[in-house]
Amino acid sequence: MKIRGAVLQECGRPGPWQQTQPIAVTELDLDEPGSGELLVQLEAAGVCHSDLSVVDGNRVRPVPMLLGHEACGRVVRTGPGVTDLAEGQRVVLYFVPRCEECDACRAGGRVLCTPGWEANGAGTLLSGARRLSWNGEQVHHHCGVSGFATHAVVDRHSVVPIADDVPPDVGALLGCAVLTGGGAVKNAARLEPGEDVTVVGVGGVGMAAVLVAIALGAGSVTVVDPLPDKRARGLELGATRALSPEEAVESGHRTAVVVEASGNARAFETAVEVTAPGGRTVSVGLASPEARSSISPLALVSETRTIIGSFLGSGLPAQDIPQYADLWRAGKLPVDQLVSGTIDLDDINHAMDELSAGRAMRQVIRF
Ligand SMILES: [Zn+2]
Ligand SMILES: [Zn+2]
């Protein structure tokens, strides 16, 4: 079938991308779902820093690639072997498929699915197939999702069904920002009620960590970010304190749980520095492969601290996403507050400029 989607043609093309247009919004071909796959009509997709990292070349991926990995939509058709999802079911897509059969999947959650991770690197679905083509050339899938499009074919192991009362923009954010930022607090740090939390880097994922920390009963929540606008927004969303990275380090600020959601080596150092003795530093930001940090091994040992890397929320999306939806439904997790603007698919290059400049927390494409 013919769909409309946002195809990245080159990683690392210099910006501003509104002018250089590395992403073509175009008509392309989508094959029917294969065995274990389904066709989804997208309703909303969030523009995340991990999309930007492919555009700016921080994370090089095979191109052409149809971007977008944080999305929500409805099942249109199921391929052979998919019996538990009906037409019309709303689903949240998530960005590393879980085959449920490999050693990593059987180990229970914290480690990423081995074939799922390999498929993401190759730009295919979990089966190894590519269902997208453009002018006769195969187009790669982004994280098994490729949600910046009117429709997507995805593996059953890339979706979680969600109730109809969850709006599409909220559903989309549950699939990456909330899953990642929330999982850092809930699953990786295992926050105890009353513990103090600091979040270093408050874009969409970091701000989701703030909201989940508050929802789970954190004692205080401090946001640390170099941008004054982001610090102000953190306070609006319920953080108790906002500091620049320099202020945080120089003032001796320290908390039991620290989440780094910035994806650069300096932010990671700051996060380690502001972790209290006995505390946990959780890193979820995706730094470039060349990035290196400098930390004190002695401080780590003598203060008996823990550093934890977390991806996909260190848990099971099929369990976590409905739990976050329940918190949203109870009024405890105002995910809609993370949406900084609604845009059209045609605005995608401009949206990358906005995200890169730190002017947007979560821009959501509506279809
Ligand atoms: Zn993301
Ligand atoms: Zn697996």
TrEMBL record:
Does RNA-binding show up as a keyword for this record? no
Please give the superkingdom of this protein's source: Bacteria
User: Which residue intervals define the domain Enoyl reductase (ER) in the entry?
Assistant: 18-365
| One Pfam family of this chain | ADH_N
**Sorted alphabetically, which keywords does the UniProt record give?**
Metal-binding, Oxidoreductase, Zinc
Needed co-factor(s): Zn(2+)
Alphabetical list of Gene3D superfamilies matching this protein: Medium-chain alcohol dehydrogenases, catalytic domain, NAD(P)-binding Rossmann-like Domain
Q: Zinc as a keyword?
A: yes
Q: Which SUPFAM superfamilies match?
A: GroES-like (SSF50129), NAD(P)-binding Rossmann-fold domains (SSF51735)
Q: Which GO terms describe its molecular function?
A: oxidoreductase activity; zinc ion binding
Annotated family: Belongs to the zinc-containing alcohol dehydrogenase family.
Q: What is this protein called?
A: Alcohol dehydrogenase
Q: Organism source for this protein?
A: Saccharopolyspora thermophila
